[in-house]
Amino acid sequence: MGERVDQLLGMAVELPGDWIGTEPREAVKRMMTQLSSRPEFKEAIAMLTERNGPEHVSDGHDDAGDDGDEPPAPVGPIVGRDDPNEAAVEDDLVGCEVTLKGLKSDPGKNGRIGKVKAWLPDRGRFAVVLLDDDGVEECARGPLALKPDNVERVDKEGGAWGERGVARVERIPGAGRGVVADRELASAEANNLLCEPAYATAVNRKRATARCHRCFATLAGSPLIECPCAMARYCSSACRRAAREDPGDHCAEECARGGVWTAMIDETSVLATRVVRKDRDETKRGVERRRRFTDLDWRGVWKATGKDRERRVRAVALACIAAACAGLDEGDVLTAYLVAEGNTFYVKRPVGPKPTAPYDWREIFTMAECAVASALFLDASMLNHSCEPNCFASFPGREIRIRNTEKVQSGGQLLISYGPVAGGESRDVRRSLLSDAFGFECKCNACVGRDRVGSVEFRRVKQTASMYDDRAMSLVQSGDDSPEVLQTITLAARQSMGLLHQLYRWPNLTLAMEATRVAAVESALAGCVVRGWSEGRANGRVDSTSLTMAKDALLCLSAFTEKRRDRGEADGVVERARDFLVNLLISHRRHKPAGWNDVSVSSQVNFFCMMHEIHDGP
User: Fold this and answer.
1) How much is the pTM?
2) Most buried one in 97, 239, 259, 410, CB count within 10 A?
3) 586 contacts 605 by C-beta, under 8 angstroms
């Protein structure tokens, strides 16, 4: 079946490109018209949607109707209200900023901010001029004529964000909209800033047979629980039932249309159809919503695809294929595709089972994680980017949790990273990647300020650090635990970490994770079995310098993890590293090595024991 999708994409590339410079909805409409006229396109779609489940009659399209979206109002003098007795609500909006909504013929404008210039009584519409990201009127396009139902006054106090009321959405000069703190946030607050369930998800194709398509847990044992179309697998009947009832997942409607295509095309396209289907379902049920997917930015991605004709053709073609398979409007699907491209979070899970005490140092040294699914979160997507972010995301189950990792002043932005952070790549590489992917030039402090090292020196240091890391990893995987090999691994790991200190600013998550790896191999070299409380058994002792390094790494990692476990924290590599370091310090609590005179260690270990519910030993 995969060759069918490749065939359709190849067909799209050969089509006339007169639509390349148009707006998304017009572009996808033209391509769909050309593709649908070809018998081979219809044949391929029929094969991709071969039904194994119950029949489904509806084609999924919304009924056409008057959505109040008209061509732009003529440029020139705008006539005001003639009848002073008409409803005053229209006068109240004149001069105000509004958000555009409910436009079906051009949904790309939904979510845009405009300014009401006048009320047109003879047409029963507002004349609205769009504003750019800096709040400047786009006068060259002329005003739009919109019905009252298609505009909503912008709340000058900012839009709500999250459930705790600690932050709000505001327009940020030069950066569209962002999230700012309503009060001063202490470093690593006890509670998460945001806990938000996924709006829609799609499992990673490479993990489709190994992970539950609902909660993304590792599939193990039997019997195998599958969807009737056999295109989705679950760890329990509860997960399968929840998925079939959720339009943002592999629901009954998607299954009934034939689920084969969902395994043949990329997960972004699948995710886009689920976003559209869920939005349509909420609209039909009259669900009250704070924001919709059309409120998220998609223009940056469309702008970025303009630099690469092949990428734009592929995006539009995938939207056509996905829309035809799912029975949805191709314009809506392309908008959702662009939204997903620019706002998707990759849900990550550690590779391998969770290590437990007594720890195998190799499991800690080789910890890694992989993306298991793509997910769209409407509130979390409002966060802007920085190469030096002050917030961190974790993914327990189908939820995202955002927590700040450093102090944020009242009115300060909450920021996450969309790609490599400062130290992970040089400034030039980071800015190029962000521009190509999201269509904006990063102007965060790390990109505007001076680099710690120049680009040439950065590449040299990075390559040397990787060389030492590769050497250490090959020895770890050899299975040799002789003191000579452990000593060589320790030296290579320390040399790699020392080089990375030239690129990253401490405290830093990458450096803390590197310190955890060094602590793991040094514990093995010292003959220390990390099991928490030693229960009176003899145990090797790590030297004082290494323990101090472990303590500092633990303090750093604690800013990135939950303070309370009663909410079911994520099982990620950060949490695993933290638990290992907690147990390492506890193992040395009663048998401190000579020369370790840190008087605060005992109180800090007590604190971590209490915080992470590790019981006192004998």
Assistant:
1) 0.81
2) 259
3) yes
